[in-house]
Amino acid sequence: MPAGYLLSNAPGEIASHARVALRAREGVVTAALAPSTRNEVSALCVATGDRLTDPLCVVAGDRPGLLACIAAVITANGLEVHAAQVHTRNLPDGRVQAVDLFWVTARTRSAEDPDDALARLVRDLEDVITGTVAPAELLGSRRSRAFSDRPLPSVATDVIVDHTASATHTLIEVVTKDRPGLLFTLAKTLHELGLTIGVAKINTEGMRVLDAFYVTELDGGKIRAPARSETVRSALLSALGTTPPAS
Predict the structure, then answer these.
(1) pTM for the full model?
(2) Superfamily for 158-239?
(3) pLDDT digits (tens, 9 = 90+) for 172-183
């Protein structure tokens, strides 16, 4: 695992995540609740199995990337993401495994057994990652009004493209109002722009979201051309329903 992961998680949490990652050898994807140091917030660990050629790349050419798939499933299952860590590790056979952590709470109270709810989430993950169900289709079939009916304070939306924060990646910071499917929208847009997400850090404070994505172009390099940076920024602002400034 990368150094950032080791610095961000306690030994007991790391051991729990490792057990989930080892279980991923048995299928395309697995997920489990993990120990959480955050009060009243559950930690959901999702690990992709090694049956995929490269879990960080799109599974099919016309589908969103892995993070977008997972985000769609989480939202469709009535969970809100308060924070997330997106990591990758190299497997002994040379392939890459994604180990993604999401700190979640249920949007509404449910009488459903937690084990049954988790089993359904894993089935949904398998469906979207293998292409049986499109992420947007899954979201549309289960959209809930419970979140959108809340009073929503105003939060200004902004997107910052930073080329200096990392030696190897371009940092994209997004500040906006929390909403259902937000992480799916951002991850899907980045994928459609042809960008690969190396690290993602998701943070929510009340209704204000600050998401950070460390991305590269498909050739592994940073976003370099100023025009390309503006294209990325404008596309994200448009996806968030904000009119990009006139050039």
Answers:
(1) 0.78
(2) ACT domain (3.30.70.260)
(3) 999 999 888 899
